[in-house]
Amino acid sequence: MRILLSNDDGVMAPGIRALANALREVGEVFVVAPDGERSATSHSITVHDPIRVDTVDIGEGITAYKCGGTPVDCVKLGLEGLAIDADVVISGINAGYNLGTDVLYSGTVGAAVEGYLHGVASFAMSFEGKLAEDMEIVAKEAIKVLRRFYPIASKEKMLINVNFPPLREGGYQGVRVAPLGRRDYANTFVKRQDPTGRTYYWMGGTPIEEKGNGDTDTTAVRDGYISVTPLQVDFTNHSALKMLGDNEA
Question: How would you classify residue 168: left for phi > 0, otherwise alpha for psi between -120 and 50, otherwise beta?
Fold first, then answer.
């Protein structure tokens, strides 16, 4: 298996390094990842600036490149510019959840979406933790998820979003396949002035977790399960097509 690995935390982030090294037992690993953090870049691409690429050492037996663009640029470059004939694209392991409506903003998910658009089975993987030693444990769990779901994902060319809850004593409850939930944020905008006197705003926010017992990705991780959610890119509101069509002039 030939694996193209990217992320939005940067090529030197603990998550991608742990996953790259763990994936060596599964296949040939190629890393193309941003040279720094590109969180919340969604599906943005670089069109007016050059994209600079350099090789980087992140582990023995791993071909790795750092890229000056976005996560989507990295996957495009890997599949097209560097001509990596990947069997699977994996984005992660991200430091922090990408649950529910997070997928619309996430650079981690954006990179996986790009692999999917190229007709390659693609996985976005995120973990609610940041410690390097924890990432190494989760990377082993990620291998189990990949082995379990890759056969069907490869056959059907699926896009799959995976979230790992915080590590707890006794391990995870299991894996739960679930639809996206909803994850709103209580955003704050701090108004400041730069040294020249110009006003700027710094945005921050904390997630408002989905309530209730619905069978969604957000409730799955809350209950200690690894959530697995198949995604699609079709934004069409199919239920509204006929209603609007009936009102055509």
Answer: beta
Q: pLDDT tens digits for the chain (249 residues)?
A: 999 999 999 999 999 999 999 999 999 999 999 999 999 999 999 999 999 999 999 988 899 999 999 999 999 999 999 999 999 999 999 999 999 999 999 999 999 999 999 999 999 999 999 999 999 999 999 999 999 999 999 999 999 999 999 999 889 999 999 999 988 777 778 899 999 999 999 887 777 766 655 799 999 999 999 999 999 999 999 889 888 887 765
Distances, alpha carbon 151 to alpha carbons 160, 188, 197, in Å: 12, 43, 57
CA–CA separation, 79 and 183 (whole Å) = 32
Structure pTM?
0.92
First to last CA, the chain: 53
For the domain covering 2-179+212-243, report its CATH number.
3.40.1210.10
**DSSP secondary structure string for all residues of 139-173:** HHHHHHHHHHHHHHHHHHT-EEEEEEPPP-TT---
CA 132, 8, 23, 61 torsion-angle sign: negative
Bridge-partner residues for 95, per DSSP? 127
Q: What is the 3-state secondary structure (H, E, C) of 2-57?
A: EEEEECCCCCCCHHHHHHHHHHHHCCEEEEEEECCCCCCCCCCCCCCCCCCEEECC
